[in-house]
Design a protein that fits this description.
With about 575 residues, the protein is an alpha+beta fold. About 30% of the residues lie in helices and about 30% in strands. About 40% of the residues are buried.
């Protein structure tokens, strides 16, 4: 039609074209100097004006609610100007109102091909949601957010996808594709504000540190111990102000068994689950790798104190000094928390031992008040791998700078440890393998993962939310990284968490992080080869945490564990 109109206009004489412009209300085009020089350009001007008038007519009809008439007007515009992206997008909006979703998708696709803009992406996403093509809808909404990262309508549509998916799971189960779309949508919504950065202050506050540890106390506050700075870091215990994410205070401690300054150690809960007792183990001190264990207890009346401890085992049963290991606390059937320790670097290089540290606190007298501890005994044990070649292949290789987290007991699994990444024997031998350890069966399993697999890395941090593993930063072969990755453990698929680029995290490794009960991921310090970092940042994963239990994959062959 457009070619036919153009041909007919070109066949008119200059006088006929002038009369046509006057009678159709487009006489202003006669004032153009271009018209007097080139009739072809004048013809194009006529077509452009016809298309504009038709589009404006369509917009007016759309606003009045006459959708069929609006489609007709937009169609007249497109007959003259088939590549008009705005008109294609507007006709798609009318098709959406008429519930002609397939036609809306076609028009939006054409508009995006001509000129990518936010509206056709959003409108196509709306059509995809209506026809239950959720993966495509999430992809379009993510593309739309590239134009406006804080667009509330986009986030509302993503939340609607999550709500549909979680509701379906409760009733009848969701398809794999639908579930994956909901996971991606939940991630986008949860991290929509990106990282919130804060300074590190105090009087005194912690120095710029790397190789330190953060941990959550029973009071929900965040604590810091150890690390290495440009100047020597004192072995002080710091606490973050609960009302100010940038202000730190030193916590007074008592006792004569305080550890020396150290870095790349571990801090874990230990002892009975009703006691607030923390184990600081290993690390690098001024004397090199350290083998000592230190216990820090918090008591509501007496505050924090370092406890005297003893180990009655032979020296041959005490593990070699190490740093860069990974630990997980697990409440056993006795009600006591054991610390599982894997790997680390010793004087002989990296290590592949799986150790367990337990402690028993003996009360001063046999009375109800068992908080009066006079002696704490620690006991080491090792979970040994089989010597056969076949069994040896089912065991993670020696490493340091890896992460290890706890997967809580579920209806399908006993408690498991999940291990990721780290350095091999050589400093540039980085890994990105994932292993789980069944604590009951004492069996390691290598996961065969796919998707957005993170490059091999070490000295990152990791946390679990339900059946999902989040990995933050780390040192890759090229440099420090600031990316957040998430592993869906049920399907072994990796996702790159879409944190907005304008609210990113400075690249880092050797940092520490803690995930609060409310789903706030707090990162402090770390560094690069340029030196330590003195900053902190917070990423809100609370929305994802609230939906995680409804999004994880339930196995078709699920079973219920014995009580």
């Amino acid at each position: 039609m457009a070619e036919k109109l153009r041909s007919e206009l070109q066949q008119l004489s200059s006088v006929q074209l002038r009369d046509l412009l006057r009678t159709t209300g487009h006489g202003q085009l006669l004032q153009s100097e271009v018209y007097n020089k080139d009739k072809q350009v004048a013809v194009s001007k006529v077509e452009e004006q016809f298309a504009l008038d038709a589009k404006n007519e369509g917009n007016a009809l759309f606003r009045r609610g006459f959708m069929n008439d609006a489609v007709s007007a937009y169609s007249r515009c497109l007959k003259v100007d088939p590549s008009n992206a705005v008109c294609l997008s507007n006709r798609a909006a009318a098709y959406l109102e008429l519930k002609q979703f397939d036609l809306a998708i076609i028009d939006c696709t054409k508009a995006i091909k001509e000129t990518p803009m936010i509206k056709p992406f959003m409108r196509r996403a709306t059509a995809y949601i209506a026809v239950q093509q959720f993966r495509q809808a999430v992809a379009d909404l993510e593309a739309a957010l590239e134009f406006e990262p804080r667009n509330k309508e986009c986030h509302a549509k993503l939340q609607s996808i999550v709500d549909i998916a979680t509701d379906v799971r409760q009733r009848a189960g969701a398809s794999t594709e639908f579930r994956k779309a909901a996971i991606q949508a939940a991630l986008i919504v949860s991290v929509r504000e990106g990282w919130t950065k804060s300074a590190v202050r105090g009087n005194p506050g912690p120095a710029a540190v790397n190789g330190h540890t953060l941990f959550s106390g029973a009071d929900g506050r965040i604590y810091l111990f150890g690390g290495r700075a440009v100047r020597e870091q004192k072995p002080d215990l710091f606490v973050l102000d609960e009302n100010d994410n940038s202000s730190w205070d030193i916590i007074p401690t008592r006792g004569t068994s305080a550890p020396s300054s150290r870095a790349w150690h571990s801090t874990s809960s230990i002892g009975h689950e009703n006691r607030e007792l923390y184990c600081i183990y290993g690390g690098v001190s001024s004397r090199g790798e350290d083998s000592s264990v230190h216990l820090l207890e918090h008591d509501a009346l007496r505050g924090y104190q370092w406890l005297q401890l003893r180990c009655l085992q032979d020296s041959s049963e005490i593990p070699a000094p190490r740093s860069g290991h990974a630990t997980v606390s697990l409440v056993e059937s006795t009600g006591n928390r054991a610390v599982f320790i894997f790997g680390g670097r010793t004087k002989r290089g990296v290590n592949d031992q799986l150790l367990v540290l337990r402690c028993s606190s003996l009360p001063a007298v046999a009375v109800a008040d068992s908080s009066c501890v006079v002696d704490t005994t620690v006991v080491w044990s090792e979970i040994c791998q089989e010597k056969s070649v076949e069994k040896h292949l089912n065991w993670p290789s020696a490493r340091d700078g890896h992460s290890m987290c706890l997967l809580q007991r579920s209806e399908c699994h006993w408690p498991r440890l999940i291990l990721f990444g780290g350095n091999g024997q050589l400093n540039d031998e980085r890994m990105n393998d994932v292993w789980t350890f069944d604590v009951e069966k004492q069996l390691w399993t290598l996961l065969h993962c796919f998707g957005d697999i993170p490059p091999p890395r070490s000295y990152h941090t990791a946390h679990t939310i339900g059946e999902f593993l989040f990995v933050v930063g780390g040192r890759t072969a090229e440099s420090e990284d600031n990316t957040v990755y998430m592993l869906d453990i049920g399907t072994c698929e990796w996702f790159k968490v879409p944190v907005p680029n304008d609210h990113g995290l400075a690249p880092r490794a050797w940092h520490s992080s803690v995930l609060t009960d409310g789903g706030k991921l707090f990162v402090l310090g770390g560094g690069s080869y340029h030196g330590p970092l003195k900053d902190a940042a917070l990423l809100d994963l609370g929305y994802f945490q609230s939906k995680a239990s409804l999004l994880f994959r339930r196995h078709d062959d699920k079973f219920v564990l014995d009580k």
